[in-house]
Write a structure and sequence with these properties.
Layout (H helix, E strand, L loop, with lengths): L5 E8 L16 E4 L2 H13 L3 E6 L2 E5 L5 E10 L3 E10 L9 H18 L2
Parallel strand pairs: 1-6
Antiparallel strand pairs: 1-2, 3-4, 4-5, 5-6
Organism: Shewanella holmiensis
Protein name: Cytoplasmic protein
């Protein structure tokens, strides 16, 4: 059994405000952290509230939360040199970003995660 050696948690909060004269966009509000506690909290929460399956990208199932405008996904990955990764994704959409595409956001985040995994040696 391989231990989890890398944890990535992505959070996107579609803003309802404009920051530093930049156009309000989900791309300006991507957070990435490596907290095991956040990953475990998300897994526990999502296990109890599986939400509704929306679609899949590269084998990752994206779900919509039942009680909020939030979308989530998680996956474990085998990495080079017998490593093992765990990734969680959470996307919050508010009223300003109704035309934001969850598919586009998740595609961007998954590609970023895959690039980070390729860099792990």
């Amino acid at each position: 059994m391989t231990a989890i050696t890398h944890v990535h948690n992505y959070t996107v909060r579609c803003p309802h405000y404009q920051q530093n004269d930049k156009q309000a966009s989900w791309q300006n509000h991507i957070e990435v952290n490596h907290s095991c506690e956040i990953a475990l909290d998300r897994i526990t929460k999502w296990h109890n509230n599986a939400g509704s399956k929306l679609f899949e990208i590269d084998g990752i199932t994206i779900r919509k939360a039942d009680k909020e405008e939030a979308y989530f996904a998680m996956q474990s990955s085998r990495l080079k040199h017998d490593g093992h990764g765990l990734v969680t994704f959470k996307v919050y959409l508010d009223n300003c970003c109704q035309d934001a595409s969850v598919n586009d956001i998740m595609t961007h985040l998954i590609q970023d995660y895959q690039q980070r995994c390729e860099k792990i040696s």
